[in-house]
Design brief:
Number of strands: 14
Largest sheet: 8 strands, mixed
Strand order of the largest sheet: 2-1-3-4-5-6-9-10
Low-confidence stretches: 8-18
Helix content: 25-40%
Oligomer: single chain
Mean pLDDT: 89
Number of domains: 3
Number of helices: 14
CATH superfamily of the largest domain: L-asparaginase, N-terminal domain
Strand content: 15-25%
CATH architecture of the largest domain: 3-Layer(aba) Sandwich
Structural class: alpha/beta
Amino acid sequence: MDKLMEKLIAGLLVLWLFGPHACAQDAQQDKERQEENQKVASQLPAGEAKAIVVSRCGMCHGLGRVVAGKKSLKSWTNTIKVMVLNGATLNDKEVEAVARYLAANFPEGAKPLVRLIATGGTIAHVREGFTPDTRITGRELLASIPQLADYARIEVEEFSKIGSGDISTAQLVGLAKRINQIYTSEKDVSSVVVSIGSNGLEEAAYFLDLTVKSDNPVVLTAAQRLHGTLGADGDKNLVDAVRVAVDPQSRGMGVLGVVNDEIHAARDVRKTISHRVDAWNSGDLGDLGLVDKDRVSYYRKPIRKHTIQSEFDVSGLTDIPKVYIVYSYLGADAVLINAAVKEGHAKGIILAAFPTGTGSPEQAEALLKVAASGIPVVDSHRGGRGRPANRYPEFVDGDNLTPQQARLLLALALTRTSDRKIIQRMFDEY
């Protein structure tokens, strides 16, 4: 009887693991996967097994993940057999047909195509000064690093040639729209790498994490030392960024920052040091993974919503609403708060509070009036680690986002609503 019960439990476990519900996700994710599958299906080459690939291989994950693979006939066959063991419904003839189709159209040895979007920054900076002629173009940068060709075919797009401090929010919107356009219309592009100034990496990465509508990799990288100088880190960072971008594990991980042999989630990364090459970290949560000499290794995944799960849409925007950050310090008054509202026409305010989550008495009084007027106020903090206790029920709890990240999330939230409860839900989910 005990053995019979064990078999029954084992059978139920198999059904639970591999039954139809194993592919079930929430309605939004299911809709997004179906939309992705339709787009990819329209781009697939003709062939006898195309219909099988479209109808069966996209059931549990997006077709984009399937076609991102570059394998031999033997490797494709083994991969499909593993999927059959996990519940895919294909007979032996269908397995052979699908493997032949995929091996013919997505063969081993075809290096993935990466779009490098160059924006400027120290990674392209060749001599002291802050004018465009002190930086090389993305094409010149690519030509100076022949090792990149070992990992991918790379096309360069010159987006800008500026320092990260010169990047505007309108340019961030433009960058997100361009990446979305690439992934929508250029199916042969497997991943996007953005070279950017070191100070702008964390904000640009998080903004793209909230606005890019693809689970294809988007990787940002930067440098601390001028290109071509002693100990320059930019060349290695760019090679590592491309390695991460073409690694199959990177798909669905959200936007990534790759610097100093480390892989950071867009939501967590922040620059904390002015000049040393170990300038970036992910605070309390740590790196997602590492880029070693022999392989790319991941050790955790982001769990907050990002990219294809995001509700934010910049397709109709040219810029984002004005949100100001107000910094707390001993004796802080309300002058800057009042100026942000009256002169700056603020649509929202971030309080970079003391680490306990409070501002000065004058700041608190002024911000409570701002919140009562219908302008959302987010309680962040200046400490850099952890989340503050939200001392003000009238404010949105900023969780563990840095003030500069909270500013971007609030601005995007304001493109959809000004309701505090809905904005709080967004901060809880993103």
